[in-house]
Amino acid sequence: MARGTEVLIIGGGIIGVACARALIRAGIRRVVLIERGELGRQASRAAAGMLAPQAEADGPGPFLDLCLAARARYRTLGAELRDATGEDIEYCPWGLLYLVDPAEQEAARGRAAWQRSAGLRVEEVSGQALRGLEPALSPDIQGALFFPDEAHVRPCAVLRALAADARQQGAQLLENVEVVDFILAEDRLRGVRAGGETILADVVVACTGPWTARLLDLLGHRLPVEPVRGQIVRGRFARPPLTHLVWGPLGYFVPRLNGEVLIGATMELAGFDATPTLNGVASLCEAARSMAPSFMAAPFDKAWAGLRPRLPDGLPAIGRFPDIPNLYVATGHYRNGILLGPLTGELVAELVLEKRPPVSLDPFSPGRFFR
Ligand SMILES: Cc1cc2nc3c(=O)[nH]c(=O)nc-3n(C[C@H](O)[C@H](O)[C@H](O)COP(=O)(O)OP(=O)(O)OC[C@H]3O[C@@H](n4cnc5c(N)ncnc54)[C@H](O)[C@@H]3O)c2cc1C
User: With a 6 A CB cut-off, is 230 part of the ligand 1 pocket?
Assistant: First the structure.
């Protein structure tokens, strides 16, 4: 039996779900998303939820601009999603303290300088002022940069809210169905094979994270996405012991409203193995000890891992696939998929509707790997 849709999205992480919501809200009548497991059970659930372009970017340019636009998008997204679905994404615009190692002072001054020239807010904080802001931080830390506009969210709540809104608007999000092949006729896709069925589609969007290389291999094209494992440890406190995100040379803290503190994250090449390891947990505990020794007495709650999708240049691929005009790709969001997810969905919707996106996507074209 064959069924059909206008847009078929493959992959139900934050990127796929954000695309489904944006496409159905943009007026496309039939949107189907196919996820081989449960929605958001891979990297999108493992993430810490920082919206932190000023800590992440290494300099000005199109990637910083994309990340800043994505951060700005979150300012209204929380209220939109709460009104539409009742779900609270725990948007916390608390700012980020970027701890400066004595050996890194020159680099930190450089970071502050280029960010100010780019019009971003940066404050320099002495060691004493830092402990006034966050008494739990180690007295050995001699200073920090403060980025007051950074924020964080709870990623699984973002995913739940985007999915609920997409469904309410009429998108079909199917779980436990795997896309196993494409149906190609001349240079266009006619659809996919999934769950023993043929699903016909006018447009296909591949949002399959680190599995995108395997998926596109089915078409004889290799997009070089690879998995980079990240582990996180969670401690639990009676009340939040921090009032900012804290980013150090060895790791970061993400405080949640309920007193949980995430300690993240490792960066490892371990293939598709998303299991946390004792080495990973030990290195994160060492990072936590160096930043806030008193945290080591907190009850250990949980550890987990996920696979970040990374392309060789570290930038996402968002756009039409070369040679197959009705195939789009949105992947490679690497360390910033939660930040970039909602905006990516809206940009993909603009592309599919053949509108001009508000942010130039040329630097992120999947075609850059096929020239
Ligand atoms: C430890 C860690 C911390 C992180 N912290 C942050 C952070 O603080 N801020 C931030 O912005 N980002 C963060 N990230 C990055 C972010 O989590 C990722 O960039 C993002 O989740 C990627 O989303 P995705 O939808 O592309 O991939 P995924 O979430 O991996 O989703 C892809 C989906 O495709 C499905 N799929 C694959 N093949 C098929 C198929 N053939 N058929 C059907 N379905 C298929 C998979 O089952 C999966 O559910 C972090 C990541 C990790 C691991």
Answer: yes
